[in-house]
C-alpha cells in the first residue's frame, strides 16, 4: 500500500495505523518522504518506521534537485544511509510532471553503482508487484562515490573562488 503522509500533521498513532494495515496483509510503502517538511524536521519518525520494515519510495526528480535543495539533500541522505527501497517517477502527465527516471538512474549509477540503480528501479518494484520479499542487496554497504573536485577547492571555503593564476 503506497502511503503519502500529510505535510501538515503526522498523527501520533500513525505507526499503529501502519501496524493494523500490515495485520490486514498489506505492505507499507511510504511515498516521497523527502518532500514532507515534517519528516525532514523529524527524520527519527521515518527511521523508526524503516526499522519496523516499512519501505520507502523516493522521487527521482528529488534526487536531481527539481524539488529544491532541502528536498534533494534529504533524499540523497536517505539513499546514502541505505534507507531507500524504490525510486519512482511521480509522473502525473507528459507535460506537467513527466514520468522520467533516466536522470536519477544515471546519477545513482555514477555515485553509487549500477547494481543499486537496478535494485531500486527494477528488482525491488518487480518483487512488490509479484508479492515477494525484496531481494537482498549484493552490496553489503552502499557508500557514495566522492565528487571529483580540484585539489584547491578542498582547501578553500565553499564560498570562495580559486585564485587567478595570471595575477601571481
Please write out the topology.
Blueprint (H helix, E strand, L loop, with lengths): L1 E2 L10 H10 L5 E3 L5 H5 L1 H9 L3 E5 H4 L5 H12 L5 E3 L13 H10 L2 H16 L21 H5 L13
Parallel strand pairs: 1-2, 2-3, 3-4
Helix pairs in contact: 6-7
How would you describe this protein?
The chain is of the alpha/beta class and 168 residues long. The chain has one domain: TIM Barrel. The chain is built from eight helices and four strands; from the N terminus they run βαβααβααβααα. Strands 1-2-3-4 form a four-stranded parallel beta sheet. Helix 6 packs across helix 7 (114-129). The longest helix has 16 residues, at 114-129. The protein starts with a strand and ends in a 13-residue tail after the last helix. Residues 158-168 have low confidence and may be disordered.
